[in-house]
């Protein structure tokens, strides 16, 4: 794995930027100078993104980012790739680095308590702990922690409405309600704890580093995780030890596919799968088939094709 030439860095940090445009331009310049590809989001609440390039180039860009206000200890997850999995480099200005759509939430100054992976099992095993998965339904479908509640949301911005509708039922389960939340890499559960705090819930916890940190540090024989973890890169899913999993990705709907899905009569690589076939018109499937054809031709020519991009980088 370490012999692969390209370094991929996924990063985020909640911090306060008073002038986002002043952060954007120099960061774009250093990424372009170093030949980095990927996407970085800048908002008043912080920075979030995934970038790829050579080790030296990534080190130079991360050095620049760590010099930004509040980013000295920014969380970064590294992986390796045979080639850069992105087409271009964009540093974009956004209202939020992960979209929840709740203006009163403060993920910088008022969040829940971090829980290290080594302490997570004891927390979620406690019957007074309400465990909530903050990820989207297609992510939860391939794996989750034992006993976790699945909100069945299709977007993170749906989480506040789901919680408000279920609040009485959820918190009425115990005399001393304690809420523990988790997500892929930490950013969504960190912001969701800030949301619960804004709703008056004080005893709130989140898994530090997310599922990926748990799978990296907790031995499988001690694990309370079941299944695989969806990731937003070319691996699609990982298991314990962050070993690549068995899932692939439907290029039409971005749903993870297992062996049974790929054996379905509705599966055609790059065109459709059992999860989206009924929702797509023949015209759409025809366009997807043409895109897949152009991708194959581009690979034969040794060129990148925009259709080869994987799922987005904003939900980890």
TrEMBL record:
Keywords for the protein's UniProt record, in alphabetical order: Oxidoreductase, Transferase, tRNA processing
Gene3D superfamilies: 3.30.70.100, Rhodanese-like domain
Pfam families linked to this entry: Rhodanese (PF00581), UPF0176_N (PF17773)
Role description: Catalyzes oxygen-dependent 5-hydroxyuridine (ho5U) modification at position 34 in tRNAs.
PANTHER family, alphabetized: RHODANESE-LIKE DOMAIN-CONTAINING PROTEIN 7-RELATED, THIOSULFATE SULFURTRANSFERASE/RHODANESE-LIKE DOMAIN-CONTAINING PROTEIN 2
Family: Belongs to the TrhO family.
Name of the molecule in the record: tRNA uridine(34) hydroxylase
Organism: Alteraurantiacibacter aestuarii
Gene this protein is translated from: trhO
């Amino acid at each position: 794995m370490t012999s692969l030439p390209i370094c991929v860095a996924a990063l985020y940090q909640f911090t306060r930027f008073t002038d986002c445009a002043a952060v954007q331009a120099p960061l774009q310049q250093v990424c372009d100078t170093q030949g980095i590809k990927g996407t970085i989001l800048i908002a008043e609440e912080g920075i979030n993104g995934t970038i790829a390039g050579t080790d030296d180039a990534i080190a130079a860009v991360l050095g620049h980012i760590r010099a930004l206000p509040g980013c000295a200890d920014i969380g970064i997850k590294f992986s390796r790739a045979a080639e850069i999995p992105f087409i271009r480099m964009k540093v974009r200005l956004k209202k939020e680095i992960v979209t929840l759509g709740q203006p009163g939430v403060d993920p910088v100054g008022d969040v829940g308590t971090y829980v290290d992976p080594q302490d997570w099992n004891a927390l979620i095993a406690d019957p007074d702990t309400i465990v909530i998965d903050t990820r989207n339904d297609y992510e939860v479908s391939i794996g989750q922690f034992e006993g976790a509640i699945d909100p069945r949301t299709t977007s993170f911005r749906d989480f506040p409405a789901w919680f408000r509708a279920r609040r009485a039922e959820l918190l009425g389960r115990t005399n001393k309600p304690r809420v523990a939340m988790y997500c892929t890499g930490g950013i969504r559960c960190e912001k969701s704890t800030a949301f619960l705090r804004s709703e008056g819930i004080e005893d709130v916890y989140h898994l530090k580093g997310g599922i990926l940190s748990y799978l990296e540090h907790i031995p499988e024989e001690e694990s309370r995780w079941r299944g695989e973890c969806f990731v937003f890169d070319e691996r699609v899913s990982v298991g314990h030890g962050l070993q690549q999993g068995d899932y692939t990705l439907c290029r039409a709907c971005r749903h993870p596919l297992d062996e049974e899905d790929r054996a379905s009569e509705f599966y055609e690589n790059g065109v459709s799968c059992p999860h989206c076939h009924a929702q797509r018109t023949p015209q759409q499937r025809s366009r997807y088939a043409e895109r897949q054809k152009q991708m194959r031709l581009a690979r034969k020519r040794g060129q990148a094709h925009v259709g080869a991009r994987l799922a987005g980088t904003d939900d980890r």
